[in-house]
Amino acid sequence: MNTGTDISLDMLMNSENPEKALKNVQPFMVLMMYYECAMMEIETKLKILNKEFALKHRRNPFESIKCRLKSPVSISEKMKKKGLELTIENIEDNLTDIAGVRVICSFPEDIYVLSELLSEQDDIDVVCVKDYIRNPKPNGYRSLHLIVEVPIFLSNEKRMMKVEVQFRTIAMDFWASLDHKLKYKKDNLKHPEIIAQELKKCADMSTAMDYKMQEIRNMLE
Ligand code: 0O2
To answer: Which atom of ligand 1 is nearest to the CA of 180?
Structure first.
């Protein structure tokens, strides 16, 4: 990637309105466009799998799908946290979650069926798998995270772009959304340890519910 804009990027990020300034930098916009295209590719692949699955098995493996591009401010903050200079090259080499796709499934088993079907596609490279379902985070967070590389076909080149795909059940997503909200207001919390313990209890309850629902579905089938 052309790095001729490195200096101006840094200068713009130190300006009074970095978000606005960064949006005006052409190479950054181009990179974001690449990520958006990659995100669309993954979304389409998953939607195709959902359609085929619905026809074959008369049910949808996922309930909904959400796509998001990381904001320039979040990108800048993450790069700072990593102690890296804010350049186009560094962004592309070091951030794996600029393009994010979140897939909300009904049952835990569907997560593995769907993620395997996606991973097996011959134009997909799986860069990394973090299975927080089989190995939940100590706070109770559960999700299956895949970093995949997918090709995007432009007018005169083919580029491999990274996309973070998060697979969750409705219960996992419910917990993670509330956890995120509470974390956002962390500074105002009076008893963070108790809150963490209570949240962990909720995570355990949601896990039990997921597997009970899975059991019921398996009985019905
Ligand atoms: P956002 O706004 O959701 O994107 P890395 O991204 O690799 O540098 P890390 O922590 O190794 O950092 O990545 P990991 O563990 O795969 O988690 C990345 C994303 O998972 C987070 O993105 C969240 O979306 C989600 N996540 C991870 N842990 C938790 C948690 O404890 N609670 C909740 N609610 N979500 C979690 P971002 O960048 O934090 O935010």
So the answer is: 34
DSSP β-bridge partners for residue 23 = none
Residue 3: pLDDT above 70? no
Domains and CATH numbers, the chain: 9-171 (3.30.460.10)
pTM above 0.85, yes or no: yes
Give residue 135's pLDDT band: very low, low, confident or very high (50, 70, 90): very high
Tens of pLDDT, residue by residue over 142-197, are 999 999 999 999 999 999 999 999 999 999 999 999 998 877 656 666 777 888 89
Read off the tokens for 189: 């919390």
Q: Which residues line ligand 1 (CB under 6 A)?
A: 97, 100, 130, 137, 139, 141, 145, 176, 179-180
How many CB atoms within 10 Å of residue 205?
Answer: 13
Atom of ligand 1 nearest to the CA of 166: 20
| Beta carbons of 145 and 132 less than 8 angstroms apart | yes
Catalytic residue among 116, 164, 198, 221: 164
Could you confirm whether 89 is annotated as catalytic? no
Chain centre distance of CA 20 = 24
Partner residues linked to 69 by β-bridges:
99
Region of 187 on the Ramachandran plot (φ > 0 left; ψ -120 to 50 alpha; else beta): alpha
